[in-house]
Amino acid sequence: MHSFCDWVNSTYTCSDPETHFVGSNVESQWLSFWNTSIVQRYKNYYDNIIWEPLNEPIVSATTKNGTALGFPGNPLPLQGPYQDFITTVRSKQGDKHWVIMSNAQWGGDFPVVSDPLNRILLNRHWYHFYNDGGGIYDQTAYQYPNYDASDKYQITRVNCSWSVNCAKAKGDDVNIYVRTAMARFGRPFVSTEVGAQWHDGTVQQPPDSLWNSGACTYAASTLAFVQKIASNFDGGPGRVGYTLWMNGHRESGVNGCINVWGYQISSIPAVPPPDFGLSTRASIIAMSPSSSVAATITVTSLDGFSGTVSLSETVSPTAGLATALNPTNVTVPGSSTLKLSSSTPRNYTIVVTGISGTLIHRVNLTIVVTTNNPPLFTTTFFLLLGGGTLGALSSLTLYMRRRRRLKPARKVILSRRQAGFLVQL
Question: pTM, whole model, 2 decimals?
Answer without folding.
Answer: 0.62
